[in-house]
Amino acid sequence: MSSPAVLAARAALASIDLTSYDPEQSRLMDERCILVDEQDNAIGAMDKKTCHLMENINKGLLHRAFSAFVFRPSDGKLLLQQRASEKITFPDMWTNTCCSHPLDDFEEEKIEECQLGVRNAASRKLEHELGIPQSQTPVGEFQYLTKIHYLAPSNGMWGEHEVDYILFLTADVTVTPNKNEIQDYKYVDKAELQAMFNDSSNSFTPWFKLIARDFLFGWWDTLLERQGFDGRVYAKTLTGVADGSKVIKMV
Q1: Of 52, 117, 204, 226, which has fewest CB within 10 angstroms of its CB?
Q2: pTM
Q3: CA distance to 25, 27, 29, 58, 205, per residue, from 21 (Å)
Q4: What is the C-alpha to C-alpha distance for residues 164 and 100, in angstroms, rounded to an integer?
Q5: How far is CA 58 from the centre of its chain?
Q6: Where are the beta strands (DSSP E) in 125-243?
């Protein structure tokens, strides 16, 4: 029997007119996400617009994504971004360093061995959104932790339904923000992030809130505890702290 995600993939339609949205963000909706079933088996591809319509999400349409967390090695602070107002989904919200999708459009982002596809996508999107040169985000330095399955409506018509790979990276990076993607960014320590969560004037993406609630602070503690003799933190010290062999269901 086919899973809901497979059935939805077969039935998906995208007939929404995007002319009222930002032209660049509308263009990016033509990129093709990798469709997956509930066990993260690739089952095809579909444009972002189709994948992010709640009409299709409610039928089970599911795609692959990543959430990258970049920490500064010298003090272990986390780089956050605030999404641009131009974004079609979850505009103006604070979130982790970068969250996006490996694309079916690029062969190197479909490689599943050692999560290489999502690592390649993370390096590409960190450059696209934050202007971080890919030379500063080598794919071999990303530490994969686990993957979560979550569903989150955005603003009625739009939403997310993803198998989301969580990647940590410790690196000194140069940020030159793409203003069509992000409107602000900052480095925070744990206490500063908790204060942001406690401030009702801030809004956060749902996946970031889920990851922070269940995983982030514990892994962050471990990252800081395992700092090197040079006082710097290294994402690779987190090898084995999470079971990345299966999808953690959070829906």
Answers
A1: 226
A2: 0.93
A3: 7, 10, 11, 23, 20
A4: 9
A5: 21
A6: 143-153, 159-170, 182-188
Neighbours of 108 (CB within 10 A): 14
**45-97, pLDDT tens digit by residue?**
999 999 999 999 999 999 999 999 999 999 999 999 999 999 988 999 999 99
Coil vs helix vs strand at 169: strand
Q: Which residue, 122, 119, 112, 102, is CA-closest to 39?
A: 112
For residue 101 the two structure tokens come to 């999708």
105 Cβ contact partners less than 8 Å away, ≥ 6 residues apart? 31, 32
Instruction: Give the pLDDT confidence of 123-175 residue by residue, as tens digits.
Output: 999 999 999 999 999 999 999 999 999 999 887 789 999 999 999 999 999 99
- Please give the backbone phi and psi of residue 210, each rounded to the nearest 5 degrees, phi first: -65, -45
Taking the C-alpha atoms of residue 36 and residue 42, their distance in angstroms, rounded to an integer, is 4
d(CA 62, CA 7): 10
